[in-house]
Amino acid sequence: MIQLQVINKILKTKDSSIVTLNNLNESYFSEYPKEFNYIDDHIEKYGSVPDTESFLQQFQNFQIIQVDEPDSYLVAELARDYNKRKVALYYNKIRDCCLSDDSDKAIDLVMKAAESISSGTPMRCVDITKDTSRYDDYISRTKDLGKYYVKTGFDELDQIIGGWDRQEELATIVARTNYGKSWVLLKCAVAAVQQGLHAGLYSGEMSARKVGYRFDTLVGHIPNGALNHGDASAEVDYRKYMDDLPDMFSNGGSLKILTPDMIDGPAGVRALRSFIEKEHLDILFIDQHSLLEDDRHGRTPIDKASDISKDLKNLQVLKRIPIISVSQQNRASTENGLDTTMVAQSDRIGQDSTIVIFLDKKDDTMKLELIKSRDSENGKKLTYKVDFNRGTFTYIPDENDGVGGNSADAGSADFDRRYSSPAPGQAGEDSF
Fold it and tell me: Could you tell me if 184 and 249 are in contact, meaning their C-beta atoms sit under 8 angstroms apart?
């Protein structure tokens, strides 16, 4: 009935926007494919919906009915009808694969079925010449930036990018092997926890114990070498730190670690989605992109990396939380500068990312270079003296980085003020 209603409304109103604005096609009209295509062809050739009389000359047995339902109802019901048919079609195929013990093909069909599902949400637009609600949003940001952004753990970086966007961030930290990507990622995770957020970290390589030791080094500055090597000289300080730990995070912040051994193998994006939903995460960190499983089973490493990047982007849009991951830098020469094509495995990772930060390290000096940032100036460089064993990052001011000097101190104070009132239920007092 719903297909009949939609065609009748198009004929009555002579308005095809319900089709064009919602990307409807023949597959939505399984009971009336010829009728739909006739209308579609008429619009293509003559620029208008055919008259009811012309339509009935072609389809004399077509039933004309009165339709008063709004487009939103019709689109939602049409999508539900479409989805029921799609699910039924894939169900039989998936069942056959399971019966023949072909689990890989069954999983692939599940992914395709999910992609084929229609949301049934009518297209809506906003007239920005009349809608002024963004002004209220701006005023709110001037008073409470913490409601919209998560501090990264690097004050100077926050002054440039504002922090991780709470709803629209898919950031990538890029560096070559042993340059400190995992340390930087974990420092960002610590900052999120200190803001009272429920953070999750997928560690594709390090155990939860190893990540825990690094966390203790970053928070309590307990020598990391002593923790890993069982050096008894750190026992007194470590015991005191452990006793104080509950009070340090009394704001409700938490950091949940997920490793491959906890799920019997590398995580794919589907597993990460379950991680987010089960633990009610406010932000997700991934160490690292190349250690994720491709749920789509791409044939080549580039296909797999592209699939994972696409699925992560979709996951971020779906769950509306920041997702921060690290990725390897390829071996391309950097003589002419850095760009997003230097992310290893696939250019798509850089393209999908809202922020791309490259790390460079020489001896005890680390540089963060902002290669891509949707909402701030690209090309900014920040330099830090780092001591991974003690978990310290000491900023080295530079007049060219845009945050150095006395003016930056004033800017930093104003920036902290705007972060002073965390969103209710999302963040506690800062611990920076």
Answer: no
Instruction: Give the H/E segment covering residue 387.
Output: strand 381-387
What are the structure tokens assigned to 187, written together? 């420092």
Structure tokens at 307: 């699939």
How buried is 253 (Cβ within 10 angstroms: 0-12 exposed, 13-18 middle, 19+ buried)? buried
Burial, 418: exposed, middle or buried (Cβ in 10 Å; 0-12, 13-18, 19+)?
A: middle
User: Quick check: 227 pLDDT over 80?
Assistant: yes
In the chain, where the domains are located: 2-116, 142-418
Topology of 2-116 in CATH?
DNAb Helicase; Chain A (1.10.860)
CA atoms of 231 and 234, how far apart (whole Å): 6
**Higher model confidence: residue 93 or residue 155?**
155
Q: Out of 12-26, 185-199, 239-253, pick the least confident.
A: 12-26
Is the separation of the CB atoms in 145 and 415 below 8 Å?
yes
Q: What share of the chain in percent tops pLDDT 90?
A: 59
pLDDT for 103 equals 73
Please indicate whether residue 323 or residue 334 has the higher confidence score (pLDDT): 323
CA atoms 303, 185, 201, 207: torsion sign: positive
pTM score, whole prediction: 0.72
Closest CA to 270 of 108, 416, 426: 108
Tell me whether domains 2-116 and 142-418 share a fold. Answer: no
Which whole number is the average pLDDT over 221-227?
97
* CATH superfamily assigned to domain 142-418: P-loop containing nucleotide triphosphate hydrolases (3.40.50.300)
Instruction: Name the residue among 194, 191, 212, 190 with its Cα closest to residue 203.
Output: 212
Residue of 161, 164, 173 whose CA lies nearest to 343: 173
Beta strands in 62-183 (DSSP E): 149-150, 164-165, 170-175
Lowest mean pLDDT among 147-156, 283-292, 359-368, 397-406: 397-406
E strand segments, 98-209: 149-150, 164-165, 170-175, 198-203
